[in-house]
Amino acid sequence: MHGAEPNMRWRTFCNRLLAIADRLDVSTVVILGALLADTPHTRPVPVSGTAYSPEAAKFFGLEETRYEGPTGIAGVFQDACVNAGIPAVAFWAAVPHYVSQPPNPKATVALLQRVEDVLDVEVPLGDLPEQAEEWEQAVTEMTTEDEEIAEYVQSLEERGDAEVDTTEMLSKIDGDALAAEFERYLRRRGPRFGG
Q: Which domain of life is it from (predicted)?
């Protein structure tokens, strides 16, 4: 389903969607959305996935959501699905806040690829990959026309690249080797510190 978020009668809206899901014998509900983030348009779109039940989280290899706070219809519907016994998962694309107006085909491609990976289904992408490239080129052209925005995008790129480098570095660290090195350090410090 695609459309504007209702601003009232959410319970009725969710019940009608659940009735449709029941008639169609839906086995899993997948909710897709986007959230504004400090992410540059020039990098891969980060996509997070959550499940609202421990069983769905385990089955799909996702995090169980622990979010408590304001929500939209997506969160309300996901909760309604879980209460109705239908596994529901949600995927959220982090889109650049400085170019938040839809459509964002790059985010759409990232979401659909994540759905393919997690649910092990093939989603026909059609022209979306080409549209994503065109979108990125158009945004790049617009951002380079304004020096302040271009500098801001560059700072987002540098920050994101530094985070990736740190994550890669940490993933290569051998925990046992690190523990052994720490123990050697403590022994060198003397008996007061464990040596």
A: Bacteria
Q: Which tens digit of pLDDT belongs to each residue from 31-76?
A: 999 999 999 999 999 998 888 778 778 888 787 777 778 888 988 9
Asked whether residue 1 is assigned to any structural domain, the reply reads no
Name residues whose C-beta falls within 8 Å of residue 113's C-beta, 6 or more positions apart in sequence. Answer: 47, 123
d(CA 132, CA 129): 5
d(C-alpha 95, C-alpha 72), whole Å = 17
Element of type H or E holding 103: none
| Domain span holding position 23 | 10-128
Q: Say if residue 15 is in the same domain as residue 110.
A: yes
Question: What's the rounded Cα separation, in Å, for the pair 89 and 65?
Answer: 10
pTM metric for this prediction: 0.75
**In Å, how far are 75, 172, 182, 187 from 92, measured between CA atoms?**
12, 28, 39, 48
| Residue at 141 is within a domain | no
Residue type, 134: E
